Amino acid sequence: MELIYIMALLITGIGVGFASGLLGVGGCFIMVPVQYWVLTTMGIDPTIAIRVAFGTNLLVVLPTAISGAFGHTRKGVVRWNPAIIMGLIGAIGAVAGAVVASNLSGIVLKSVFGIAILIGAVRMLTAKPPKIEKEPPTNSVVYALWGILIGFCCGLIGIGGGVLMVPIMVLALHFKMHEAVGTSTAVMIFTSMAGAFAYAINGFGLEGLPSYSIGYVNMLQWVLLAGTSIPMAQVGVKVAHKLPAKKLKFVFIVVMVYMALKMLGIFEWIGLPL
């Protein structure tokens, strides 16, 4: 891999990790497009490139989710019973989503990813903390049903799923915001692990993969992204109250919208060289 691609991935990991710790948002919408750009520029087939970006991104999420879950557990904001139910069932859904993604074209996968990130940007821009007046359900079936749906989406578009889980837990399951964030992080341990494993298995032995790949999971990109994003997340946490997070949030939204439109091919369609 050329130095320019290594630098791009390292810088991406640093930026994603810092923003994750500062704003409490994931960086899949940056990591996936950057990986896709690196791989396609290296000459990798676009369909293989987007699958590798998804699979590798899920593996990057795993150590971050483990670290975050333990941190939130120490603060007492993880509901482990719902997390385990949603996580185990969600893992099955993540495997199913990864299998489906492994049989879809690159254009379809890029479009689904772009739409999902665009929806996430709109939600981040317009969301207001709701008033929680009910207690979370005690019926395990409810958590299992949500788990399979969320897990499938995570596996299909290669994301940890926090952007989906947090609003669902708050609006549909009546979690308090801090509990939703903490519990969703715990669920991501299961979904990211299962999804990454499924991408690795489904792409194993395939011709045309980039070097250092285990199926659709590229270990070199994983080291470059995880090795920088995880420590930088701790830096972001420490400076969270020293920077204008609200303004940075809007910068993040702009980046999300740009990445979504880029993956959807909107700029190419209207002839803008962006």
Task: Characterise this structure.
This protein has helices spanning about 5-25, 30-40, 45-75, 80-100, 105-125, 140-155, 160-170, 175-200, 220-240, 245-265, 265-270; strands at about 215, 215-220. With about 270 residues, it is mainly α. The protein has one domain. A two-stranded antiparallel ribbon has the order 1-2. β1 (about 215) and β2 (about 215-220) form a beta hairpin. α1 runs parallel beside α9 and α4 packs parallel to α8.
List the helices and strands and how they pair.
Layout: H1 3-23, H2 28-41, H3 46-74, H4 80-101, H5 106-126, H6 140-157, H7 162-171, H8 177-202, E1 213-214, E2 217-218, H9 219-238, H10 245-264, H11 266-269
Antiparallel strand pairs: 1-2
Q: Which descriptor suits the 3D outline?
A: globular
Task: Find the count of extended strands (DSSP E, 2+ residues).
Answer: 2
Cα radius of gyration in angstroms: 18 Å
Structural class: mainly alpha
Considering DSSP H and I runs of 4 or more, what fraction of the residues is helical? over 70%
Average residue-wise pLDDT: 87
Number of domains: 1
Report the sheet with the most strands, covering strand number, pairing sense and barrel closure.
2 strands, antiparallel
How many H/I helices?
11
Beta-strand percentage? under 5%
Order of helices and strands: HHHHHHHHEEHHH
Give the low-pLDDT segments. none
Give a brief description.
This protein has eleven helices and two strands.
Keywords, separated by commas or semicolons:
single chain, 274 residues, mainly alpha, 75% helix
